[in-house]
Amino acid sequence: MRGRTAHLVDALTPPDPVSVFTSLLKNLRLKSWIFRDIFLLTVPMHMQTFFVQRTVLLEHTFLSFPSFIRLDQNLTVTPSAPDGAREILLDWSYEILRQGGLSYSLPGDLTQELLVPLAGILLDYPVAYVPVSAHQSTFLAGEPLDVYEVAFNSPSAGLSSLQGGRFVFIKFSCPRRVAEKDSILSPACLLLLLEHKFERRLESIGASVSVRHYTETLDRVAL
Fold first, then answer.
1. Contacts of 53 (CB under 8 A, 6+ apart)
2. What residues form DSSP beta bridges with 178?
3. Average pLDDT taken over every residue of the chain
4. CA-to-CA distance for 43 and 180, rounded, in angstroms?
5. What residues contact residue 162 under an 8 Å CB cut-off, 6+ apart?
């Protein structure tokens, strides 16, 4: 799991995800020390669960936030996290990261203006979208997007038959008109950033990194 800060469980949703995944993590910790660095972050209202690495989260979130793109008409870019996001990250640090707890639930009253960019931080996206309101329901309709897929190529036998040993573990987008105005978010810069960042994280397990870039336009984008 070292490759990224957190993984979102999106392949299944058990009736009681907190109980199920907490029990799973307890058993994994008994079997191997490598799981002692993992905790669960749950969003009960949306039935979402993240498996998060404490040490990577501490290294990443407080040193380098992504670029935040407000989903307004102008797609405004800002380096500053939305109001309240930094306080939540500090709360994670003191309540969970340093105390070794198994799970932490986000407050139930958080709306998508905070939840969406927080997910972008956790999932190591260099670009995090910020909805303009709790009621916004259409995102980036008809907007040309630069799409990025980050994959690791593993020599292990267990993955050799999976897509030729290539496993995509990050996929995100950036509006093309934003990239054309901000060189830091251009394909050339983001490709170099992604390769450098994840090569460093994955070299210890002997995996190499590949990044794919392409463009697409959708009727709407799911956040």
1. 1, 2, 5, 6, 37, 38
2. none
3. 84
4. 35
5. none
Identity of the amino acid at 54: R
Other C-beta atoms lying within 10 Å of the C-beta of residue 2: 16
Task: Check: CB of residue 198 under 8 Å from CB of residue 172.
Answer: no
| CA–CA separation, 15 and 8 (whole Å) | 17
Please choose, from the candidates 109, 122, 213, the residue with its C-alpha nearest in 3D space to the C-alpha of residue 171: 213
pLDDT at 161: 47
Query: What residue type is 76 in one-letter code?
Result: T
Indicate the burial class of 167 (C-beta count within 10 angstroms; 0-12, 13-18, 19 or more). middle
**pTM here?**
0.85
Structure-block tokens of residue 177: 């008109």
First to last CA, the chain: 23
Could you report the per-residue pLDDT of 8-20, keeping only the tens digit for each? 887 777 788 888 8
- Chain centroid, CA 21 distance in Å: 19
Helical axes 112-122 vs 85-92, angle rounded to 10°:
50
Q: How many CA atoms lie within 13 A of 55 on its CB side?
A: 8
51, 38 contact by CB (below 8 A): yes
